Amino acid sequence: MSHQYQAIAWNRQKRVYDIVLVAGVTLYLTLFIEVSAFLFPYATATTLIIRAAGSAAFLLLHIVLCVGPLCRLDPTFLPLLYNRRHLGVVTFVLGAIHSVAAIRQFHSLGDKDPLVSVLTSNQDFRSLPDFPFQQLGFLALIILFLMAATSHDFWLRNLTPPLWKTLHMLVYVAYALLVAHVTLGLLQSETSPLLAVGTGFGLLIVITLHVAAARREAKVDSKKLGPVADGFVYACAVNGIPEKCATVVSVNGERVAIFRHDGKVSAISNVCRHQNGPLGEGKIIDGCVTCPWHGYQYLPDNGASPPPFTEKVSTFQTRIVDGRVWIDPRPNPPGTWVEPSPIETSEVMA
Amino acid sequence: MIQPLRKIHHRVFFVLALLLPALFVSGIVFRYSWPTANQSRNLSAHPQPSGGTP
Predict the structure, then answer these.
(1) H-type alpha helices, A74-192
(2) Which of A39, A238, A250, A260 is the most buried (most CB within 10 A)?
(3) Which residue on chain B is closest to A254 by alpha carbon?
(4) Which residues contact A177 (CB under 8 A, 6 or more apart)?
(5) What is the pLDDT of residues B43-54, one digit of tens each?
(6) Cβ proximity of A133 and A185 under 8 Å
(7) What is the pLDDT of residues A204-244, one digit of tens each?
(8) C-beta neighbour count of A294 within 10 angstroms
(9) Residue in A287, A278, A262 with CA at minimum distance from that of residue A340
(10) What pTM was computed for the model?
(11) How many angstroms separate the CA of residue A254 from the nearest CA in chain B?
């Protein structure tokens, strides 16, 4: 997290992430162009660039889309999520290279302006095999540009996380447009079954991972809380919460993370103020609840980030009776200090 | 706070999970079957127009 403006708050993890990303993309492009030049000796350099950049962008978009559900299913993948925005920016750059090369090759030799030519040269919207697939790719590129341009924390802070997240859900629209672009473009002219199977397999992976992650999330939300007493609801057993970690429960449709730390229990909202990351899946590090996505930190007693940072999340009153944690479902205003509930030794043994 | 976002996410993805496989399969099924070299040499497939020969 940062309390003052920095273009990019570089750290070792970000550097390693970006080096691996750039090296991987460079290796892919080089191998693709070398192998294609060998297999298709009559292909022009521009054709090879169109194919290499386009396929790299499409592959990278699959990775971008799979990172989220993979992290929900297995925390091992969390390092991929840390700098996912850089993956998105590189996807846009590759898509832009693909588009510029394609427009130069197919739309720059006529009388029309190349961009006008892309949008007007084919208007056969009623035919699947002849569908104007280039316009679909162009629309997807505009969406990827919007997302890349607003990917910085500056925009996240100014647009607010809910609006920013809603805007960035357009990635699914971009993906749909690109699947259509590939299916109605490349797969119409290139009849190799490998290309069709590869595209279908990518689609299947994206859908399967999202469905699996959604089923897992639904389990947390559908779990009914226990009985109510004095306005408090039974949430979980103390023994069920690992030390320095949390149990997440759903209260009135919103999730609450109940942390156990230093012989006490505190409850805060599960939603990080940065990018709505799941605080309950993080740990308490140096006395602070640490978001597993980007490391934003909050004090468990008051839900406030330690000075000089200013982020705050809601807190909840807790109570422990006979080794059971009860919480008040009404959230306190963000940053409100709440006395942590002490865990008696007998309650741990219960 | 996060529940409305989650609902939007679910709805968008549900629609796409139905729409995209349908589009993909339709695109593959209805694509042109390009003639091969052997097919194009088959004269019975492309008969000469009547009166075209001297």
Answers:
(1) 78-82, 84-107, 114-120, 133-149, 153-159, 161-168, 170-181, 187-189
(2) A260
(3) B3
(4) A136, A137, A139, A140, A143
(5) 454 444 444 444
(6) yes
(7) 999 999 999 988 888 877 777 777 777 889 888 998 898 99
(8) 17
(9) A262
(10) 0.80
(11) 7
